[in-house]
From TrEMBL:
<keyword id="KW-0812">Transmembrane</keyword>
<dbReference type="Pfam" id="PF13520">
    <property type="entry name" value="AA_permease_2"/>
</dbReference>
<dbReference type="GO" id="GO:0022857">
    <property type="term" value="F:transmembrane transporter activity"/>
</dbReference>
<feature type="transmembrane region" description="Helical">
    <location>
        <begin position="57"/>
        <end position="79"/>
    </location>
</feature>
<feature type="transmembrane region" description="Helical">
    <location>
        <begin position="259"/>
        <end position="286"/>
    </location>
</feature>
<feature type="transmembrane region" description="Helical">
    <location>
        <begin position="359"/>
        <end position="379"/>
    </location>
</feature>
<feature type="transmembrane region" description="Helical">
    <location>
        <begin position="457"/>
        <end position="475"/>
    </location>
</feature>
<protein>
    <submittedName>
        <fullName>Ethanolamine permease</fullName>
    </submittedName>
</protein>
<feature type="transmembrane region" description="Helical">
    <location>
        <begin position="140"/>
        <end position="159"/>
    </location>
</feature>
<dbReference type="GO" id="GO:0005886">
    <property type="term" value="C:plasma membrane"/>
</dbReference>
<keyword id="KW-1003">Cell membrane</keyword>
<dbReference type="InterPro" id="IPR002293">
    <property type="entry name" value="AA/rel_permease1"/>
</dbReference>
<feature type="transmembrane region" description="Helical">
    <location>
        <begin position="166"/>
        <end position="186"/>
    </location>
</feature>
<feature type="transmembrane region" description="Helical">
    <location>
        <begin position="306"/>
        <end position="329"/>
    </location>
</feature>
<feature type="transmembrane region" description="Helical">
    <location>
        <begin position="216"/>
        <end position="238"/>
    </location>
</feature>
<feature type="transmembrane region" description="Helical">
    <location>
        <begin position="425"/>
        <end position="445"/>
    </location>
</feature>
<feature type="transmembrane region" description="Helical">
    <location>
        <begin position="26"/>
        <end position="45"/>
    </location>
</feature>
Length: 500
């Protein structure tokens, strides 16, 4: 047992500790690309479109460009840090080396909120699609949530190779669906009539313009800024890739390539969906501003209701891709904090046969489901059905923004304080890119506060933080373990990285 001088204590563990927490290496560049794109792609199927109600079409486009710039600054920073610090801990690992144990813990906690809540958001969209396709009563939505969690946690548990193969398949299918939609939409679009069919009512809220031809920016600059939190959904979770570092064959070489290729893919897809989905004749920005299944609305307008079941199932693929891959990230994120002792250590034990962090995924999923069910029963089924997705989305985005700020700060500190660390890849945007990430993330948080559903969501986040901080202060900080992340950080980045 040793004290490190920062109020934390490291306990000695036996040789079997890390043997019970072993991972397998499998992922190459293609698998990492699929993991990153798959995690995000559901945001091109649902969620982003709520921004039309605050910014109109032009506001959504410009907000998307601003958020893309933020993510470029973030992903280039992460690409550099993930190659230099190839640990499963990702955000926690970067912050731990740059800002000490408390900095690492709080950053990991922010990311934990994001990765536990984001699958909950995605499964609400999945359920909405399923209800629309099969005409199910929304009152039974919790049963659909539980069913999807059970199936995809199982797929993630039963082997790394299976998990990555499923990820690759559903990601490629999702992109094929989007390309098919773009090709279908182009000959059936009327941009001015439908994409520009939002105006401003007497109360300042969005109203439908029956003949279209509205302004690009009906809500002005403030509308653009208010749309930033919704535009985040077009890229949210690309930053999860470094969580696969210890399951990557060559993370120092492959991780930056996977992140950058994934970001390029997502920027192209984001532009196409923002342009084409509201432009389809019979759809429009106003209708999409409150839709839980915007892509399905687009398919219906083009092909009619006769094929709604087939089209709906096709449109589900993107949501399923993200649900599956973010459950993967959730498990690795909890695993890394648990292996180092920040969370209860038992959560990091991996499956004896499949070498996957099954306990971490199971507990994270139970917490996500519990939050959903509490909101569902607290608000009542009818009210919760209308607002649960927005409440959860605000929780996930707020956790993400705080973690982005912390990771960008970590990048800046590591550049200034630890220039000796080997950096196989260097961010072409450097410190200015990280600073821009911080500025945009802070502005996004500022406008997110104005969403009435933010208050409902942030209260849950504060409770989450309070419980976790009390646990770490009272218990966790006295039971830390020299995991790869901790060894690297304690050496000041001078120790050669080695995986246990």
């Amino acid at each position: 047992m040793a004290q490190d001088g920062r109020g934390v204590t490291y306990q000695t563990v036996d040789a079997g500790y890390f043997e019970k927490r072993g991972l397998m290496r499998y992922a190459g560049v293609a698998s990492l690309w699929a993991l990153g794109v798959g995690a995000v792609i559901s945001g091109h199927f649902s969620g982003w479109n709520f921004g039309f109600s605050t910014g109109g079409w032009g506001g959504m486009l410009v907000a998307g460009i601003i958020i893309a710039i933020m993510y470029l600054g973030l992903t280039f920073s992460i690409a550099e840090m993930s190659a230099a610090l190839p640990h499963t801990g990702a955000a926690y690992s970067f912050a731990r080396t740059a800002m000490g144990p408390w900095g690492g813990f709080l950053t990991g906690l922010c990311e934990n909120v994001e990765y536990v809540i984001t699958p909950a958001v995605v499964v609400t969209f999945i359920t909405s699609y399923v209800n629309a396709i099969f005409g199910l009563d929304p009152a039974y939505s919790p049963l659909t949530w539980i069913a999807f969690y059970a199936v995809f946690v199982a797929l993630n548990v039963f082997g790394l190779e299976l998990s990555f193969r499923v990820t690759m398949i559903v990601t490629l299918i999702s992109l094929a669906v989007l390309v098919f939609f773009w090709l279908s939409a182009i000959p059936n679009m009327d941009f001015s009539r439908w994409a520009l069919n939002i105006g401003v009512g007497p109360d300042g809220a969005a109203v439908e313009l029956p003949e279209g031809g509205g302004e690009l920016f009906p809500f002005g600059l403030s509308g653009v800024l208010a749309t930033l939190p919704f535009a985040v959904w077009l890229f949210l979770a690309i930053e999860q890739l470094p969580l696969a570092a210890e399951e990557s064959i060559d993370p120092k070489r492959d991780m930056p390539k996977g992140i950058i290729l994934g970001m390029i893919t997502l920027m192209v897809s984001a532009f196409m969906i923002v342009l084409l989905n509201p432009s389809v004749i019979g759809v429009g920005s106003f209708k999409l501003s409150s839709s839980l299944e915007p892509l399905l609305d687009g398919f219906r307008a083009i092909y009619g209701d006769s094929g709604v079941v087939v089209l709906g199932l096709v449109a589900l693929t993107g949501l399923i891709a993200s649900f599956h891959t973010i459950l993967y990230a959730q498990g690795r994120q909890i695993y890394s904090l648990s292996r180092a002792g920040y969370f209860p250590r038992g959560l990091s034990v991996t499956h004896a046969t499949y070498r996957t962090p099954h306990l971490a995924m199971f507990v994270g999923s139970i917490v996500g489901l519990a939050v959903m069910l509490v909101i569902w029963f607290a608000l009542g089924a009818e009210q919760a059905g209308a607002s649960i997705g927005s409440v959860l989305l605000n929780m996930a985005v707020s956790g993400a923004m705080f973690s982005y700020i912390a990771q960008a700060v970590s990048f800046i500190l590591l550049r200034s304080r630890s220039p000796h660390i080997e950096r196989p890849f260097r961010s072409p945007l450097g410190v200015p890119g990280a600073v821009l990430t911080i500025v945009i993330a802070v502005v996004t948080l500022g406008y997110q506060v104005q969403d009435p559903n933010f208050t409902k969501g942030v209260l849950w986040v504060l409770v989450w933080f309070a419980i976790a901080i009390v646990y770490f202060a009272a218990v966790g900080r006295h039971k830390l373990v020299l995991s790869p992340e901790e060894e690297f950080a304690l050496s000041g980045g001078k120790a050669e990285y080695r995986s246990h």
